[in-house]
Amino acid sequence: MKQNVKKKKEAPKNGLLMLGLIALYKWLQKAWAQWMSNKTKSISKRSVTISLFVFVSLTSSYCIYLGVHAITGKNKGSAFTVIPIQRPEHLTESEAIASPLPPVSKRDYSRIQKFRLYMDSLARSPTGRNIYDSIIATRPGLMDSVHYIEKQYQTIKNQ
Q: Which residue windows are transmembrane per the record (predicted)?
């Protein structure tokens, strides 16, 4: 019977290095905070508040200016140019993708048919099944491509 015992998480092999880096990072944080504290010790709380208010006011007003200028700017044409999208050449008027392949010759089509018949005979034969499986495993889309080319040839032939 298994007991639900939580496994102790093992420390990674480079755990000592990670612990050292974390300790260094924490030391740097403390040193930076101490240095900043010493530098700002002489500044009064009121002057820090005023300078924060001035900084926030200036940056927010600049952001508002940029937004308003982007909407109502006089030079709208200089920022961006609009180029109309052109339809790719391989797209037909019906939005169907035209065949990028050149028409298949009769000689090539007969070779493809022979190949398909050979593959079918391999698939049906118990001894050839291993060869068929290895070919399909190596080239997974091969038979799909063969069927696609045959279909394209029949379509071109019927036109």
A: 48-68
